[in-house]
Amino acid sequence: MNLHLALLGLRDDGFHELAMVMQAIDLCDELMLETHSGLQLHCEGAELASDQTNLVMQAALLLRQAFPERQLNARMHLRKRIPVRAGLGGGSSNAAAALVGLNRLWELELSAEELRLYGAQLGSDVPFFMAGGTQLCFGRGERLEPVAKTGGGAVLLGKRVDASVNTAWAYGLCRQELGQGYLRGEQAFCRARQTMRHGEMVAALQRGDFPTVGELLCNQMEGVVTAQVPAVGKSLELLGQIPNCCGVSMSGSGPSVFALFPTMEAAQVTHRSLSGHLKDNGMDSWACGLREDGVRFC
Q1: What percent of the chain clears pLDDT 90, i.e. is strictly above it?
Q2: With 86 labelled, which of 3, 26, 41, 166 sits at a CA distance of 20 to 30 A?
Q3: Are the CB atoms for 125 and 12 separated by under 8 Å?
Q4: pTM for the whole thing?
Q5: Could you give the domains of the chain?
């Protein structure tokens, strides 16, 4: 989930140079791994392919290719809870879990840094889901700098069941709409990163000042996406009517939106009182705490 998402400009490789504050939440998928005679993947809870188009299978094949001398097989069972095509990085989090889990199952003894490098090959945000917590994310999103956030905080997360946003389409649209204001060159990118490192958002997170964090929530893709996908704007308007939240924003390229609260109790109380209303307006919703970790073993 993004507390801040800025598109600084275009890199030489054609990707956007990003400056983000990303936050892990406790809406999680579950990946179960066991030894097997072949390499199999089964998905439960969502209609997902189990072939090489699935990031879990791609992660397994990537490690296989890195260790061709080993017989690396596994049965993998993915239980989905994170909604798909929701701007929440569910697929990337699954890839992160697969890399971390298979590293242990197959006794590869790869370091955390080595795993992050493999993860970046699968998706720019895969390294974030390995690390979790609160992170400044630069480059394509793979360059992480942890933020020592004070504990606490929660969100009421919502997604319209009839809305989806193609990430590549959204970034292309932002390039058309925002491109004239993009920064140019590494020097300009460096200055923007420094401003963010020493900015009020990071300071507010470090002192646990969620009202200020809520005031500073920012997603540069939000205006561009809501203009083309009215359902996202309606979702933001609906959450914006909550009287006791700190602020509302869109996550990633959408369509998921969230309202920020200072405590999990406040988010849960609001969710209990509003879940029926949100459902009537076509939204699935969850109350989620802010996590301090990433992939974890259960």
Answers
A1: 96
A2: 41
A3: no
A4: 0.95
A5: 30-80+90-124 (3.30.230.10), 149-289 (3.30.70.890)
